[in-house]
User: Fold SDR family oxidoreductase from Splendidivirga corallicola.
Amino acid sequence: MKIDLTNKKVLITGASRGIGKAITEQMAEAGATVAIHYFKNDTVANDLAKKLSNGCQPFGADLANPSEVTKLFDNVIESFGDLDILINNAGIALQSPIGTKDDQWLDDWQTTLRVNLDACALLCKKALELFSMKQKGKIINISSRAAFRGDTADYMAYAASKGGMVALTRSIARAYGKFGITAFNIAPGFTRTDMAQSFIDQYGEDFALRGVALDRLTEPKDIAPMVVFLASGLADHATGCTIDINAASYVH
Assistant:
């Protein structure tokens, strides 16, 4: 089976590294033109766009700032002329122990939700407006096993934000299927990325591997093929579903 995404325009948030980069590379390999969102890694994003060609372009935005989120979407449409697939991958995980002072703890909580959930929701809203007019479009949100099993006390905001993504995606699938729009969740577990490294450094790799059924941690390259498959349209009747890619460390 060959997946051909030629002429498909895709926006991927957090696309310059980790899971997002792996998805970007495989989307481009399938022929898609990717809007490579980044926050600070402009050099990396530019280099990636040049390497992939296909008309891929980098777009910078701070997802904690709603006006920049809106501008990101508008800039992609202005540059590409259209959008077929939205992939909300970007996320942060701020360590915030329960003993942290209230103001700081709440700031960590709100920052996490602004990036992980609010930006995702706003981009989904913008995409739905466009997709509804076209009567087609796909949204793929990268959630987490933490949405279902929770997380450690230091990362409760992360788990809550990812749980919100799951409910958002299911609502989109239920409400917009008749408009030709499908929506999916991917729920990774520990994945060997820069973002996960601070957790691994704190708790140790043995802790990260606890409960994993396979002999190694999941890597970004293990997640990307499923995203490309969902983007292809070959699994549209799975709309609303969550696909666990966590080496059986949590299966719901």
Observations:
- The chain has nine helices and seven strands.
- Residues 9-244 form a domain with the Rossmann fold fold (CATH 3.40.50.720).
